[in-house]
Specification:
23% of the residues lie in helices and 27% in strands. It has five helices and ten strands; from the N terminus they run E-H-E-H-H-H-E-H-E-E-E-E-E-E-E. The protein has a four-stranded mixed sheet with strand order 1-2-6-3. Strands 5-4-9-8 form a four-stranded antiparallel sheet, with no helix packed on it. A two-stranded antiparallel sheet has the order 7-10. The two termini are 14 Å apart.
Length: 150
């Protein structure tokens, strides 16, 4: 399990290093979860007009992680056509899904649900804060001790 809080800058170096670190553990199931600070699919994972959604230079990093490490985007697989967001930018008037739980495809069948929690302003920002975030939760289908690799 690797908790991610990706920087807004130096994405190339950061995600390349994540792949290098995780490549040593490909024989074991991997779960990468957290704030990746990028959208996987601007058309599905960002609100706003097409010009606001734009492809963005960082959109390639989630597919890069999925392909390089044999991971799946757990929420997107369970909600293929749904639009839901984990971040609100009040400054831009947009919502984005930038928080993910990526898991090895070999353990996806043990996940029964992935959901986004309610939006909540960051502590100290109050209701007029610049951003609001929503937690993301994964619900296992079975207790972890029942997984075949435990």
């Amino acid at each position: 399990l690797l908790n991610i809080y990706a920087p807004n800058i130096y994405a190339h170096q950061f995600f390349t290093k994540i792949v290098q670190l995780c490549s040593s553990y490909l024989e074991a199931p991997l779960i990468l979860a957290g704030d990746f600070n990028v959208v996987a699919d601007p058309n599905m994972d960002r609100s706003g007009t097409p010009s606001q959604r734009g492809a963005g230079r960082l959109a390639k990093w989630i597919p890069f992680l999925l392909d390089s490490l044999g991971l799946v985007d757990t929420w997107r697989l369970l909600h293929p056509m749904e639009r839901d967001y984990t971040h609100t930018s009040r400054a831009h008037g947009t919502h984005s899904r930038i928080d993910y739980i990526l898991a090895s495809s070999t353990i996806f069948s043990y996940i029964s649900n992935v959901q986004h929690g309610p939006f909540d302003a960051l502590p100290g920002h109050g209701s007029t804060g610049a951003a609001a975030y929503s937690p993301i939760m994964v619900l296992p289908l079975l207790f972890i001790s029942r997984l075949p690799f435990c």
